[in-house]
Amino acid sequence: MVSKAGVALRGVSTFLRAVEFLGSALILGITSYWLGVLTHRNSGLPTWMKAVEGIAGGAVLYTAFAVILTCFLGGMTFFAFLAVLLDILFLAAMVAIAVLTRHGIHNCSGSNPPSPLGANNRTSCRLETAVFAVAIAMA
After folding, report:
1. Calpha distance 73→41 (Å, rounded)
2. Separation CA 18–CA 26 (nearest Å)
3. Is pLDDT above 90 for 105?
């Protein structure tokens, strides 16, 4: 029989994994938008943006897998050890995204704010700030 504490721990862990999934999906969605706009404009695609897209895609896959594992296989020693290793990699991925989007700390209210989609695009500047903030929060 499963104890109430075990059920509560599994519930909290699943909730935290779901929050990680949502944060990763947000980053993936924003960078997909940037890549779509730049591709439509026939502009060059910055390497850092492709890297953020790939890392965020991997994080989404990992967190979706982690939510399922936590729900159904939580508490088993092997999967707990695997989760710790993958969490360390997830942390490193979020730090890498934060480093790659570090330009998001600029103020977006000036006359010519920098952004991934070119100068003077306040919405894109704010989205970059959101990606940076979410990556910091997820790390």
Report:
1. 46
2. 12
3. no
| Among candidate residues 26, 34, 33, 32, the one with its CA nearest the CA of residue 63 | 26
Judge contact between 101 and 93, C-beta under 8 A. Answer: no
Can you say how many angstroms the Cα of residue 78 is from the centroid of all Cα atoms in its chain?
26
User: Rounded to an integer, what distance in angstroms lies between the CA atom of residue 22 and that of residue 45?
Assistant: 25
Q: How far apart are CA 125 and CA 11, in angstroms?
A: 36
CA 131 to chain centre: 8
Dihedral sign, Cα of residue 104, residue 96, residue 17, residue 62 = positive
In this structure, what are the phi and psi dihedrals at residue 31, rounded to the nearest 5 degrees?
-70, -30
pLDDT confidence of residue 81: 87
Mean pLDDT over 85-89 rounds to 91
Question: What's the confidence (pLDDT) of residue 2?
Answer: 66
CA atoms within 13 A on the CB side of 64: 8
Q: What share of the chain is helix, strand, coil (3-state, %, to 5)?
A: 80, 0, 20
Q: State the pLDDT confidence band at 71, using cuts at 50, 70 and 90.
A: confident
